[in-house]
Design a protein that fits this description.
Radius of gyration: 17 Å
Strand content: 15-25%
Order of helices and strands: EHEHHEEHHEHEHEHEHHH
Number of strands: 8
Helix content: 25-40%
Number of helices: 11
Strand order of the largest sheet: 3-4-2-5-1-6-7-8
Largest sheet: 8 strands, mixed
Distance between the termini: 10 Å
């Protein structure tokens, strides 16, 4: 059985997509079979992994609104053992289209995923920066949540709302949902602020915080524009080294499976 991990934080610009893409690639390069699901209407994970959004016939939108089987939507990537369920801007209409659906709309992704998840070791879900129906679908379908937290002044702002959403999802839709881990991102080690925020987050989340910290790294910012993960763009960069360490931590926490 695969491990399904939702990468989420309703605060934008904290490294959700960067983490989703590069963690997925790192796990694949470790020999794991990985499915990346892009459930963000911006579809940055789709573009960032090298898939042309404008050329897609089917996306995760079709799975959620039309119950199209995921096997018909999954696209292979240039990374061996890494597939993607792509997205495009059509996802922005999901909230409106499903507004009249009274039952089961929060479980559309979970139901679709059940038929393919056994093909993979890990499923990584890149969530949008908003606490709406798409995020609820992601949390309902997932085993756990990975929360990227930017090392900046307002790092913990809004996390209470996210944690409440996780608790609500546990109560109503997915009682087995857990916090996989908290990832510190965009650390500028030259500033005292970044170090202080790191200490604050570790104090709050304790052992849930990963040992590795993702640095602020220009290569991580450049790679998506080329449709490449950080390992194919610059494997010697600090960003690549950090995400490789994260993948090893994730696997270790899951019993080296």
């Amino acid at each position: 059985m695969s491990k399904v991990i939702a990468v989420t934080n309703q605060k934008g610009g904290v490294g959700k997509t960067t983490t989703s893409v590069n963690l997925s690639a790192a796990l694949a390069y470790m020999g794991k079979k990985v499915l990346l699901i892009d459930i963000d209407p911006q579809a940055n994970a789709t573009q960032g992994i090298g898939v042309d959004r404008s050329a897609l016939d089917l996306t995760v939108y079709d799975a959620i609104t039309q119950n199209t089987p995921l096997k018909d939507i999954i696209v292979s990537t240039d990374v061996e053992r890494l597939d993607i369920v792509p997205a495009n801007i059509d996802l922005a209409g999901v909230e409106i289209e499903l507004s009249q659906v009274k039952t089961g709309r929060e479980q559309r992704l979970k139901n679709a995923l059940e038929l393919v998840r056994d093909r993979y070791d890990y499923v990584i879900v890149d969530c949008p920066p908003a606490l709406g129906l798409l995020n609820t679908n992601a949390l309902t379908a997932s085993d756990s949540v990975l929360i990227p937290v930017q090392c900046e002044y307002y790092a913990l702002e809004g996390l209470t709302q996210l944690l409440n959403t996780i608790l609500l999802t546990q109560k109503v839709f997915n009682e087995d949902l857990t916090i996989e881990g908290v990832l510190l991102t965009m650390l500028d080690s030259r500033t005292n602020l970044g170090i202080e925020v790191s200490q604050e987050v570790r104090k709050y989340f304790r052992e849930k915080v990963y040992d590795v910290v993702i640095p602020r790294n220009i290569k991580l910012s450049e790679a998506p524009s080329e449709g490449l993960n950080i390992f194919d763009y610059d494997s010697s960069s600090e960003g690549a080294k950090s995400y490789a360490k994260l993948a090893k931590e994730v696997v270790k926490r899951n019993g080296n499976k």
